[in-house]
Amino acid sequence: MLGKTHAVVGVTTGLLIMQPVSATELVLGTAASLIGAVISDIDVGSSGSHRDAGKMIALMVSAVVAVGVIDHIWHIGIYSRMIQHTNIVRIWLSVQAFLTICVFGMRSRHRTFMHSFLAMALLSGCLWLFLPSTVGYFAVGFLSHLMLDFFNKKGEQLFYPAKKFCGIRLLSSSGLVNDVLFGVGFLAAVRVVWIFIRKIYLH
């Protein structure tokens, strides 16, 4: 599936499964689900599609910036929550570890390390070090990506470093199924976000 499809499916799945109960959790959960859903495809640069890898990175950076802007404008307590149970050294170390794993992933072959349970566990561990409340959303988003790509014709190396590629291998990355999933996923994501906004503010 294409990145935009992974994004909307990941956000919808993450919010529906994790059920945010506050504005802070809704914003952080949406961003974490989105990043989890698209981060696997930073390895597409290794297969020659550098522009697609750049799009994935830009989308993740945009999500982080959006969280900061929302927190600054509406003062919903994201920054204070981030530093509540941690310190600057722990945040720095976890961010450095997260980026190191991503750099390794970018240099890996497509649908290998970054499409594995190992990558999900390592990246989730980095998030847990300074923002534990986002780990569930991130992991669900990541798993939604693995689930969709499981049906890709090329398969994926789920149990990296084991060399076997797993998958049912029915679909291509783009095409009618991708378009349908994106359309349904986009409408579902908008609907789910609106439902939780109403639930949080009108409860």
UniProtKB/TrEMBL annotation:
The keyword Transcription regulation does not apply. Keywords: Hydrolase, Membrane, Transmembrane, Transmembrane helix. InterPro entries: YdjM-like. GO terms for molecular function: hydrolase activity. The chain crosses the membrane at residues 26-44, 56-76, 88-106, 118-140, 180-197. This is Metal-dependent hydrolase. It comes from Jingyaoa shaoxingensis.
